[in-house]
Amino acid sequence: MNRRQFLKASALAAASTLAAPYVRAAEAARKYATAIVGAGWWGNNILRCAMEAGQSKIVAICDVDDAALARTAQAVEKGAGDQPKKYKDFRELLAAEKPEILINATPDHWHPLVTIEALKSGAHVYVEKPICHTINEGKAMVKAARAADRVVQVGTHRRVSPHNVSGMKFLRDGQAGKIGMVRAFVHYGGGPESPQANEQPKGVDWDMWCGPGPLRPYNRRIHPRGFRGFLDYANGTLGDWGIHWLDQILWIMDEKAPRTVFSTGGRPVKGKPVNGPEGQTSDAPDHQVAVYEFENFTVSWEHRQFAGNNAEKGETVGCYFYGTKGTFHMGWQRGWTFYPVGGGQAVHQEPQLNNPDQQNIRELWADFLDAIANKRRPVCDIEIGHRSTTLALLGMLSMKLGRSVQWDPEKQTIIADDQANKLLARDYRTPWKYPE
């Protein structure tokens, strides 16, 4: 089979494989009592797909922001005809509504506690990536999922995107030869950052938003949508975008963990972080490089938030797989392209993405429903999400330490390094308790 035939066959196979569970879900009569915690931009993308699939009765919405609650309740009434109850505390929602499915689209620092409590209440959970803020939280989430025997799907939807699936098959079938190195990247523009004034929150329970994380002054740069740039609540670009592409590498290369990790980065362009009574800047690095050493290949991650232009070939996001037969670029909005050694004709596949926001949540939700119905592990099971999240968090941990670390994937600890192992967890703010 030549490359063109392979491309056509793999694309058709991927499309049929992904379409099947979605069709079954839409035709089924079973409806699950479904609730969402975190009714922001991305949470509404997930909720929209849940309503479109036709197997959810939206019984409740939870958010600490009154405006988000009202907006989402209106969207549900219009989109599904349901009249969900509104909550500002997820514990009250779980106790009163006992949902069968819970969508967890909170900021990163809330993913562990909300997921674990939902599992204890008997719900299946769709949780956004990254699954946690520190590595030991992820371990606790896997433990809770197995103890509850519930399905937990992680929102790494690129594992079901048609062009990602066919690209994975292309690489696994050896079409690019032996892969010796992978480079993952996100290059976006930006510049120096000045403090933004703190405010009194209006209609937002800010203490609850901060939850187990530190209580900082309210600032619109943090909420809504900006929390990923604040290390108290997230892990910057590596924790946000990095997990998507690092997950692709683990999946395609059929690996679980690296042996050694080193990372460096900083804020030479954005400037020194500010967190004062009058105003704040973000504090995540404006650029970062991380190197992951696996048994038979090396991975490098790089991101920057400056010099945004078209000086480099290809998309501003994705990963390059460097093989003995050529270079394969796994991208996002432009699909994937293989450039053969010797300058032969490139092979390309366009993406099949859903709007808004160019994603494949619909297909991932279909797999989630099918996994619940057939009592199986989903495509993006919590343990898979934990491994990918761990990869990103190890990069952040190394950068904070200023040196490399050696990872033991069986014990899930850093080898012979007490100082580094202390960073696998963090203290929670009272009264919240770190999960075991």
Summarize this structure as a short list of keywords or feature phrases:
alpha/beta; Rossmann fold; Dihydrodipicolinate Reductase, domain 2; 10-stranded mixed beta sheet; 6-stranded parallel beta sheet; 18 strands; globular
Sheet with most strands: 10 strands, mixed
Q: What is the percent of helical residues?
A: 25-40%
Radius of gyration, taken over Cα atoms and rounded to an integer in Å: 21 Å
- Mind telling me which CATH architecture of the largest domain this is? 2-Layer Sandwich
What's the CATH topology name of the largest domain?
Dihydrodipicolinate Reductase, domain 2
Structural domain count: 2
Low-confidence stretches: 18-27
User: DSSP strand (E) fraction?
Assistant: 15-25%
Please give the count of helices: 12
Give the tally of β-strands.
Answer: 18
Shape: globular
Termini Cα gap: 51 Å
Query: Strand order, biggest sheet?
Result: 16-15-14-13-7-12-11-9-17-18
CATH level-1 class of the largest domain: Alpha Beta
Q: Which class of secondary structure composition applies to the elements?
A: alpha/beta
Give structural notes:
- The structure is a single chain.
- This protein is α/β, with parallel strands linked by helices.
- It folds into two domains: 3-158, Rossmann fold, CATH 3.40.50; 162-354 and 381-424, Dihydrodipicolinate Reductase, domain 2 (2-Layer Sandwich).
- It is 36% helix and 20% strand.
- It contains twelve helices and 18 strands.
- The protein has helices at residues 3-27, 41-53, 66-80, 90-97, 111-120, 135-148, 162-172, 206-210, 236-252, 361-373, 382-401, 418-421; strands spanning 32-37, 56-62, 85-87, 101-104, 124-127, 152-154, 179-187, 196-197, 260-266, 279-280, 287-293, 298-304, 317-323, 326-330, 336-340, 347-349, 405-408, 413-414.
- It has a ten-stranded mixed sheet.
- Helix 1 (3-27) packs across helix 7 (162-172) and helix 5 (111-120) packs parallel to helix 6.
- It is globular and about 65 Å long.
- The protein starts with a helix and ends in a 15-residue tail after the last helix.
- 49% of the residues are buried.
- Mean pLDDT is 94; it is low at 18-27.
